[in-house]
Design a protein that fits this description.
Blueprint (H helix, E strand, L loop, with lengths): L2 E6 L7 H14 L3 E5 L2 H7 L5 E3 L27 H14 L3 E6 L1 H23 L5 H6 L4 E6 L15 H22 L2 E6 L6 H10 L3 E3 L10 H14 L5 E6 L12 H11 L4 E5 L11 H20 L7 E6 L2 E6 H16 L3 H8 L3
Parallel strand pairs: 1-2, 1-4, 4-5, 5-10, 6-8, 6-9, 7-8
Antiparallel strand pairs: 2-3, 10-11
This protein binds 6-O-phosphono-beta-D-fructofuranose (F6P).
């Protein structure tokens, strides 16, 4: 019986629990042993039964809708060092784990990909230093890894949606609907900062879904010499049309064309100073990550969980680790390494001020 472990890593996202639930139950259904790694990579480095736990069908009962991640997550510095990964390798072998499924964002999956590519040299070091026997070395020579993408940011290339993004979008839209009511009452302007790290998907989609007046996203930087005029002109026009509210959404990673951050304070200054609007700033923060998973995330996480286990069971050492994606409403497998590289190329394009490339890589027009 193969032993397959699942862990969550990076920022939590609604739907991660549904993903773990589907993975655990599919592992059991496929006649393998299911394990969870508690606290993300930190649990891998700490090891032992407290952190790498075998679990049964009932363990994940009731998890389908729950927000957050019940098996914990952490941003682990030790795993970033080879020494930490060597310890993690030993811990997985001690627990008898054959394969690992990681649900996380691009940073976590980059770590997963590195771990898998380094595995042969890690396990060889353990054998050469007599920490493990030749027999154990031969048994665990290859580690199969599979990634599912859990992140509210929807920033992973090669997949249309990440688990949690639509739930966070729902939270943002609900919050902006609430803000609209109070903005209307006072005829106020609001600058709303949303999460997304250096991806503008949440800001852009929330802007469309709430009919915001103006949106700042990293992929289409504000032009230093014209954004103030452009925003003022648009807001003034909307006000002249009788709008009592003004909503400007700022992605937390928004920048100008010199790569300087666009801050809510700067936007506030223009709305209140130049346009004389009574303006408030609302930073939504972690409320965007909380709450139950919307139906789409439950379904996506479940279907992708089943696919992840099947991909792991079918995987062979010569096939690159898969990432479970969704493309045009179909669950698909992509080479993890390529998805991670493509995702990084968006950040590289922005850093190189090649914004057209960043936009086309993100499919933004
Ligand atoms: O990646 C998810 C995310 O929520 C980002 O949108 C945000 O930038 C970051 O995590 C916040 O991280 P933390 O929870 O560590 O403050």
């Amino acid at each position: 019986q193969k032993a397959i472990a699942v862990m969550t890593s990076g920022g939590d996202a609604p739907g991660m629990n549904a993903n773990v639930r589907a993975i655990v139950r599919t592992i059991i259904n496929r006649n393998c042993r299911a394990y969870v790694v508690m606290e993300g990579y930190e649990g891998l480095v700490k090891g032992g039964e407290e952190y790498i736990k075998e679990c049964n069908w009932e363990f994940v009962r009731g998890w389908l809708s729950e927000g957050g991640t019940n098996i914990g997550t952490a941003r682990c510095m030790e795993f970033r060092e080879r020494k930490g990964r060597l310890t993690a390798c030993k811990n997985l072998i001690d627990a008898g784990i054959d394969a690992l499924i990681v649900c996380g964002g691009d940073g976590s999956l980059t770590g997963a990909d590195l771990f898998r590519s380094e595995w042969p040299s890690l396990i060889k070091e353990l054998r050469d230093t007599a920490v493990i026997s030749e027999e154990i070395y031969n048994r665990y020579k290859h580690l199969n890894i599979c990634g599912t993408v859990g992140s509210i940011d929807n920033d992973m290339s090669t997949t249309d949606a990440t688990i949690g993004a639509y739930s966070a979008l729902d939270r943002i839209c609900t919050a902006i609907d609430y803000i609209e009511a109070t903005a209307y009452s006072h005829s106020r302007a609001f600058v709303v900062e949303v999460m997304g790290r250096n991806c503008g998907w949440l800001a852009l989609m929330a802007g469309i879904a709430t009919s915001a007046d103006y949106i700042f996203i990293p992929e289409k930087p504000a032009q230093t010499n014209s954004w103030e005029d452009q925003m003022s002109e648009i807001v003034t026009r909307h006000r002249a049309n009788g709008k009592r509210t003004t909503i400007v959404i700022v992605a937390e990673g928004a920048i100008d064309n010199n790569l300087n951050p666009i801050t809510c304070d700067e936007v506030h200054k223009v709305l209140s100073g130049r346009l004389k609007l009574d303006t408030r700033i609302t930073i939504l923060g972690h409320v965007q990550r909380g709450g139950t998973a919307v139906a789409y995330d439950r379904v996506l996480a479940t279907l992708q969980g089943v696919e992840a286990v099947d991909a792991i069971i079918e995987s062979t050492p010569d096939v690159p680790s898969p990432l479970i994606a969704v493309n045009e409403n179909k669950i698909t497998r992509k080479p993890l390494i390529e998805s991670v590289a493509l995702t990084k190329s968006v950040a590289d394009a922005i850093a190189a001020k090649d914004f057209d490339k960043a936009m086309s890589l993100r499919d933004v027009e």
